[in-house]
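Database export, one record per block. Field names are fixed; values are copied verbatim from the stored entry.
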Amino acid sequence: MLHYKTYELADTEAPWVVFVHGAGGSSSIWFLQIKEFIKHFNVLLVDLRGHGKSKNIIAVKEDHNYNFEDITLDIIEVLDKLRIQKAHFIGISLGTILIRNISELVPDRVSSMIMGGAIIRLNIRAKVLVTLGNMFKRVVPYMWLYSFFAWIIMPRERHKKSRLLFVNEAKKVAQKEFMRWFRLTYELTPLLKYFEEKDTAIPTLYLMGEEDHMFLPAVEYIITKHTNSWLQVIGNSGHVCNVDQPKEFNERAIAFLKKMSSVQQRTFEMEEYAAYAVV
């Protein structure tokens, strides 16, 4: 099972928020969020397989290549163990793909989704990067590849903190594990196309940096096609907007979650009242 950490409020009715990091990161990338979120919500942090403190757990469990569904089921397994029936999910970068996959596999367990630096579609530059990565992954040291990708995605000086955070976390990922994760790029295009065509109608807030040049245009398009989807652009921020502008990210995300929790509670009360009235 994945390594995880929880922060629980005394209020047993408090909603759960599950944070999902991206490839090469770990739950530590949420260090600028925890303090604010635990004031309002129960919080669950997970380290994905091969990352953070989960890097040895899954390796012992199985020794073969895996797919996005395998990684998604890892998260659901933690929810089951903790008996979390429903939660709000917050992801960054590739973590948004896993959250979207959770909404496919167990939609009734997803109250809402907050997608930071969401990957909705691969543009030409991203596809070229993936192709080059697959061509050279066995001859070029994997950290060179990761550092190069990080620089392409987060090129500006003010992205340096985010870039270094992810590169330093990626150094903790074994090369064999990196290869397994990189193989997932073969699944990306068909999976993202499917996600684009299917609207879950689950309330979704996209929080994107205005300088997220590779992924922001696709999000601007998708919100015109999907219901219950909203986009908020954070200024002076790149792909990893929760690190570039944590105050803005936290305020916008918490406001959205509070609104969604309130709406869902009122809906539940109305349904309960309607059921009682019918009886």
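Remark 1: The first strand starts at residue 4 and ends at 7.
Remark 2: Strands lie at 4-7, 16-20, 42-46, 87-92, 110-116, 204-209, 229-234.
End of record.
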